[in-house]
């Protein structure tokens, strides 16, 4: 009987605690409003320090800079220009129990006049980040813990985007250097020009299309598929643990190096001055555009390659897999 009474009492206390939180958090949602901050002073650097807001940077069609934020009592934003820097920061003065909120997504929307800015720096914990086209910065640096990033803006120097959990989309963005890192998430690049690019994901796919890279394109993925389409580069280095890599119309001026533990390597009308492919378990198949002197080695697979005595060197090694290459002029 005492044991049963204890269980009932504990259950009642838990229900009372949950009900109290519900009441508190419901009350905390009162007074939610959208506040507009007008920015009159000039600036060349934009910094955003956020918590759980969705962040959007879009063109100001009227040429007036303003910041629109979702706010509530004791949770507001500081928007100020100091020494040429527009600083947007979340100010959270809530009690711990007020932070268990039930209202929807919060947001920060920056209406930015068309101009060339020095730097865009965004640091956020949870929420999506969208940067529209029509902007050029010297540097773009985005650091996000959980959420997706879509960037259509360009940078004269570096675009650097890092997210722990979330996808990265770089669309029609040009830069001298592109550095994208997604710990868990997909990376997509399309329609971009750069000098060098480094793309890394631990768990997630990498899809790159219509990229013109004048220098080195580096790709690293632990678990995920890599798809490369319509790409030109001076050199290409791809390293992966588990997942196929597909190359369609990829032309490299000098060296193309592909390392994979488990996964197929598929070429479709590709070429390079020198090609090196190493895979432990997977087939290496497809078509190249020019003659190659091919050295193919496999432990337990079949080899079907053309025999040429002229052309660039092509070394293909797989422990368990077939090798089949054709020249498609």
Quick description:
With 329 residues, the protein is mainly beta. The protein has one helix at residues 2-28, and strands at 33-38, 45-49, 53-59, 66-71, 75-82, 85-92, 106-112, 116-126, 129-131, 136-146, 149-151, 154-165, 168-171, 177-184, 187-194, 196-203, 206-223, 226-242, 245-262, 265-281, 284-288, 292-298, 303-304, 312-320, 323-327.
In DSSP terms (H or I, runs of 4 or more residues), the helix count works out at: 1
Helix content: under 10%
Identify the overall geometry: elongated
- Uncertain spans, ≥5 residues at pLDDT below 50? 16-29
Number of strand elements:
25
- Whole-angstrom Rg: 26 Å
Q: Please provide the ordered H/E string of secondary-structure elements.
A: HEEEEEEEEEEEEEEEEEEEEEEEEE
N-to-C CA distance: 87 Å
The biggest beta sheet is recorded as: 25 strands, mixed
Give the overall pLDDT as a whole number. Answer: 90
List the helices and strands and how they pair.
Layout: H1 2-28, E1 33-38, E2 45-49, E3 53-59, E4 66-71, E5 75-82, E6 85-92, E7 106-112, E8 116-126, E9 129-131, E10 136-146, E11 149-151, E12 154-165, E13 168-171, E14 177-184, E15 187-194, E16 196-203, E17 206-223, E18 226-242, E19 245-262, E20 265-281, E21 284-288, E22 292-298, E23 303-304, E24 312-320, E25 323-327
Describe the structure.
The chain has 329 residues and is mostly beta strands. The protein is built from 1 helix and 25 strands. It has a 25-stranded mixed beta sheet that branches. A hairpin with a 2-residue loop joins strand 5 (75-82) and strand 6 (85-92). The longest helix has 27 residues, at 2-28. It starts with a helix and ends with a strand. Mean pLDDT is 90; it is low at 16-29.
